[in-house]
Amino acid sequence: MHNKELIEWIIISKLLLKAHINDFDFEANRGILKGKSVKWNQTTDCRSWAGASCEAGGGVIGLDLSNKFISGVIDNSSSLFRLRLLQRLNLAYKNFKFMFPSGLTRSLKLEKPNLEMLVRNLTRPRSLHLDGVNISASGKEWGQALSSLTNLQVISMSKCYLSGPIDSSFSKLRSLSMIRLDSNNLSAPLPKFFAEFQNLTFIHLSSTGLTGGLPEEIFHAATLQTLDLSNMFLKGLFPDIPPNSSLKNLVLSDTNFGGPLPESTGNLGQLTRIELARCNFSGLIPKSLLKLT
Questions:
Q1: pTM of the model
Q2: Alpha-carbon torsion angle 165, 167, 172, 178, nearest 10
Q3: Distances from the Cα of 200 to the Cαs of 129, 133, 148, 209, 215, in angstroms?
Q4: Which has the higher per-residue pLDDT, 16 or 282?
């Protein structure tokens, strides 16, 4: 293991062991919450540590602290924010209790360090999971903070108190295959530039307050398989679907789309799930849909 990385992980392991990390399991039958301590042995290879993953040469490339309760103190100088080789960071859905410089919070809230500081030294992350973390940033702030992560393939930031609109700087993330931003207050039209992401397979933006119509360009994303835009203020006519669409899951329930469904809906030959409940569609179901099996 590289000396620098070893030193950083020893610091982090001491910090987080002191902070009492517990991994919680829920027994559905009994309704009991059980906690399991995560222990990192500093005398062993970091690849054996719970939540940590390393490359063959010993550099730390993954950190998964999702669904854990953590309490303790982390300040701006923590080595957690200096892992330059980190490719995967998962802090999703946890009950965090950290003492940041701004004070004690009941849930993890990025203030100082903020999102920009968190990702500033991450030169090649491929996945970023921050679901449930209180980021509280405007579209320009969080968009520009992420725009340098051009190798990012997966971004999952649901319930992060993000506001919109989605900044144009987000269009720099051309390697994205998965975008999950549901349950944030974006309150703006769906960006057309999503259709320019050549590897995009998954868009989940339900309950984000998106407005306006559905850009026809989205359906021209050749690799798109899942599109969930449910529970929003989107309206207008349903756009035409190009031939040979790869879309498998289409969820538009609880929106204000209206008018007839176009005959081109039959081009969704790979469709396995469609939800159009509580919309304003009218007219007959297109005969082309009978081709879908």
A1: 0.71
A2: -20
A3: 17, 24, 18, 22, 16
A4: 282
